[in-house]
Amino acid sequence: MKTILFSLPGNEELTALMAKKMNAEIGKSTLRKFPDGESYTCILSDVKDKCVVLVCTLHKPDEKLLPLYFLSHTAKSLGAMCTCLVAPYLAYMRQDKAFHEGEGVTSRFFGKLISGFADSITTVDPHLHRISSLGEVYHIPNKVIHAANAISEWIKENIENPVLIGPDSESEQWVSEVAKKAGAPFTVLQKVRHGDRNVEVSVPDVEKYKNATPILVDDIISTAHTMIETVKHLKKAGMKPPVCVGIHAVFSGNAYRDLLDSGIEKIVTCNTIPHPSNAIDLSDIMAKEVKKLMQHI
Asked: Of 60, 124, 223, 270, whose CA is between 20 and 30 Å from 86?
């Protein structure tokens, strides 16, 4: 089956990388707004009997969803065999239960919506907290790609004498996995409570790591509050300025500038959301996994 990739606005670079690795063509389309604000959709390439791959990271999803919905249905109406969504960042995963009376469980509503117009979905490290697998929410063939290997490789190739730092005990499992793959040590900040309002945060075995480069790793950098607080603790402990590594560069508000100004060495993210900090390319594994997933449609 021939494959054709369409980039939703802002996803052109990732689409080009994936198309090259999939030996696939890049489709042409026109997506614009009418004067009244409604969406116009036109596919200019031949999609008949082809598998259409829609590349659209779902950061700030509300403005992207209708163009994506219309593009998928337009492709089907023109004879496409299937439409496969590649959403490196997947939104609406945090509201996975009703925390207060009357709330909508939007992760399930969003999953039902996308499952209604896409034949498969591929994403990178979604926020699966109370959900054990993506299949609980998305009732179509799906693949979750993990960025830990790529992050570990980047650390091995770019950082001398690294030590990975977890901001709290909850991060230990994630940080330890990346550290193991990178062949680097790791430690987790410890909180010692001296009273209701007196909490001391320390770096265990800090003397051992004084000459190492601290690496702070997180899946989503949104407000960057946790990383900024961790940087303060590392400074107080006399450690070197850290390198901050994230999978998804959400960076709400002034978070990116605030983190840069906190006294770090640099910020590095994966290319799941287009951002100046992108330095870890996941297009190779995305291309491979999308091709595998097509076999199950």
From this structure: 223
Instruction: Report the alpha-carbon distance of residue 20 to residue 16 in Å, rounded.
Output: 6
Cβ(39)–Cβ(66) under 8 Å? Answer: yes
pTM: 0.92
Walk along the chain (297 residues) and give the pLDDT tens digit of each residue. Answer: 899 999 999 999 999 999 999 999 999 999 999 999 999 999 999 999 999 999 999 999 999 999 999 999 999 999 999 999 999 999 998 777 778 888 888 899 999 999 999 999 999 999 877 777 899 999 999 999 999 999 999 999 999 999 999 888 778 888 999 999 999 999 988 866 555 555 566 778 788 899 999 999 989 999 999 899 999 989 998 999 999 999 999 999 999 999 999 999 999 999 999 999 999 999 999 999 999 998 888
Q: Which domains does the chain have, with CATH numbers?
A: 3-146+282-294 (3.40.50.2020), 148-280 (3.40.50.2020)
d(CA 274, CA 242): 23
